[in-house]
Amino acid sequence: MNNLTRMTRIEIVVPARDAPAIRELISSAGATGYTSVSGVSGIGHHGQHSGSLLFNEYDTLTMLITVLPEGKAGELIDAVRELLNSSSGVMFVADTYVSRPEYFQ
Amino acid sequence: MSLVLRAQVAAAAQDIVPAWPLDSFIAVNPLAGGEGRAFGSSRDPHVLVARSSADFTTDFHRGRIPIEALQRTLVTRFPVLGHTMRVGGTSLHASSIAALDMIEHPVVAPASAPAEDTALDNCLSTWIAAYLNPDGLWVMPHRENGFYAAWRRLAVVDPATPRAVRRRITGAPEGVDAALEKAVSGVATGELRDYLRAQLAPLPGWVAHIKWRAEKVGDIDLTNYLAVRLTLAGALGVVPASLEPAPVAPVDTTWERAARIAGLLTEHDAAPADVAAVARVLAEHPSTEHPLTWQAAYEDAYRADMLSGLCSSTEPTERPGVQVVLCIDPRSEGLRRHLERFRGVETLGFAGFFGVPIRFSRYAAQGAINALPALLTPRHRVTEHPLDDAVAKSSVASARLRGALGHALHVADSTSTSPFAFAETAGWFSGAITALRTLVPSVYARLERAFSPDPDDLPTRMLMSESFTLDERAAMAATALRMMGLTRLAPLVVLTGHGSHSINNLYQSALDCGACGGNPGGANARAASALFNDPEVRTVLAGSGLAIPDDTVFVAAEHDTVRDTVTVLDRHDIPTSHLDRVLEFENFQAEAGQRLVAERARDLPGARTRRTVAHVRRRADDWAEVYPELGLAGNAAMIIGPRELTRDVDLGRRVFLHSYRTESDPDGSALETIMTAPLIVAQWINHQYYFSALNPSILGAGTKTIHNAVGTLGVLAGHRGDLRRGLPWQSVGFGRELIHEPMRLSVVIEAPLERIGRIVSGNQVLRNLLDNEWISLTARNQIHHTWHRYTSNGWTPATPATARQNKETLT
Lengths: 105, 811
Description:
The structure holds two protein chains of two kinds.
Chain A: E1 5-15, H1 19-28, E2 35-40, E3 42-44, E4 47-49, E5 61-68, H2 70-84, E6 90-98
Antiparallel strand pairs in A: 1-5, 1-6, 2-5, 3-4
Chain B: H1 3-12, H2 53-61, H3 67-77, E1 84-87, E2 90-93, H4 94-104, H5 119-132, H6 147-155, H7 163-170, H8 176-183, H9 192-200, H10 204-216, H11 222-236, H12 254-266, H13 272-284, H14 290-309, E3 322-327, H15 330-339, E4 345-350, E5 358-361, E6 369-371, E7 381-386, H16 389-414, H17 418-439, H18 441-451, E8 460-462, H19 470-484, E9 492-499, H20 508-511, H21 522-533, H22 535-543, E10 553-560, E11 565-568, H23 579-600, H24 612-618, E12 637-641, E13 655-659, H25 669-676, H26 678-694, E14 707-710, E15 714-717, H27 729-732, E16 733-734, E17 737-738, E18 746-750, H28 753-762, H29 764-771, E19 776-780, E20 788-791, E21 794-797
Parallel strand pairs in B: 3-4, 3-9, 5-7, 9-10, 12-13, 12-18, 18-19
Antiparallel strand pairs in B: 1-2, 5-6, 7-8, 10-11, 14-15, 16-17, 19-20, 20-21
């Protein structure tokens, strides 16, 4: 597709206090980077989350997005699933396409 | 190592609350990992969540817990006890029977003590301290390779370790991941998380600090810790820790208790039907619930008393001469009460960082402090600019000289060879200084101040425009005004931060401002004053309908909570037109401070003398004083509402006070900010005191008198072992008695109930705290309306306090 390379995109939404553990897993999985969005809002299994709070980043939700080659993604998916077994949070996994694959190897 | 194992480590550590280092002590709920579960359902069998039933029964008999509060609490906690029944021909409320059972049958909690540190724990503590100690004269070799790698390289040449153990460590994998994988290879996958949790249970202080450090510094993590622990355990031939079995369920005594209660109620041998009826009531309220019911009743009585004492007066219309904005800290409650006695003085409460989150460094200083709540990440660095470069240059030169001298003395005193020569040449001088410091500490303090000028003596200014755009500055100012409901401004507004100034006190940071990251609040008060006095900011505010009168001047000040003195800062920035008002305020604060010291001395151990005020203030300079002040001991409630609610009301320095006016907050965003930030900080502090008081040896730091500092990381009790968590005994008790009354935070808000409900529904942290009963919430829509209590089923009218006439029996 337009000389794009297929990769796996993983999005994880967790309480901000659990985000360091997820970031550590992402780094350990060999991902070259991630995007972090703090203060995300929505409604889920645990009820409503109003989003960004002016003076509290600790009790909000954080969304972490990372893209990595398919071969590295499986282990990260298993690890995040293991962590989410005992805490609140969701994970979305999808195929994605990137124009500069060397950035994600 | 598979990533899944790392995830298992993270999952096993999920309930562990990170512990901040000592120099930026942050009060936390040590059981915060369980806030998603009901209060009282701690996984640690050694943790007490309430005082003993016997203690509460004593409180009941001396009238501290009225019978009405006990019955009310029983019905609130167990609605099934709200019915009436007949026993022995008499009609009785089921809650009366349950209350009689609690009074007649105090639950005796089985003695429970955590396991002592093992040889493995002691050995491991030594290695962690060596690796992390930032003030060590000897930096651990190979530190750059991580904890496991450095330990593995050094342990094999450590002569203190038996040769056979060293040989086994030599065979351990080189990498941390491989080491941990090998150590847990014999554990079944389904049992792995519990196994890892058991390995994290010993040394909880070090483990909590490592968790903080992994997130904030990154030079160690729990994977490294576990790899060392389990490899060392294997080498020592120690069986790794296992999770303690669940406590054995107590023997059911319902029938015996029911027979006794029925006998008391009928005043003769009760009929089997009466015993059965009573037993059904008792079964609804099992004895395991008694301590939590007592605790809730104890808090209910306090809350009812407090609510009945609050005022219902309307907002004054007269413009005050001075408005003093104080931190929400309960210690400010005393100061505001004594200041409010003066005509023309109005006070307000706001989080002590005044809505200006900064990382602050003094002029030409090397370090910086995070002057903001721990809930935030610092993003804006602010520093000082001297008004006179020549004075600044000379000041920096003399500070450097003093620093070099101090460093030289420290090195001479601490290296392995020089102390003997140093003692020979300078020992007499040090001896004289030590004698002076011990015998006449105030003289020594005066000398020290003469030779070490205060950094505040150098006239400087903070340029907020360097760190914040105009929009950001105006937004911060507008937010603060809306959160406080500050629309009727006085000619002089004093933003008063607070700090605690004592010496030889490892826990000084715990006595500083919690909203300023465990630092004194003067820097934030100065930054906020600069913001509010900025003409550009005022122009933007006026455009938003928040005009600040031209004759209003904001002044920064700092309240020293040991001496109860308020020092006005940045005097050079005060316009001459307002100097008289400032002088008048200084006279007010001097008198208010003296009254407050005299009031505090009633509770402060050893403080009452013929010259109480001078005596208490001198204690700040005494390096042997373990009670410079009592900090936030006694904290029990938080009031969010207009200041008229509390005007002239003595709240005993037990209440966090945050100003708020519904009419200044049309969309409720200010209230949401208060409920999700200052309230959360207050709750952390409250639970830190609560659990440190109930569990001084495992969730508190024990007595200060045997503490040894590990750099600025924390303290050990003695010379080895675990890093101590929580507050020292001197913050919560005296002798064998508690000074702090452990009560969960009672939050009181005057704002529309619908608005409060909406905010709670939108924030999981508030839902967890309220629905799981970690805190309580009582509110009323507006003045003269009925107070309502928040429950998971909605709002219910709160009952006012009643006369306390407990009878010996309820029959």
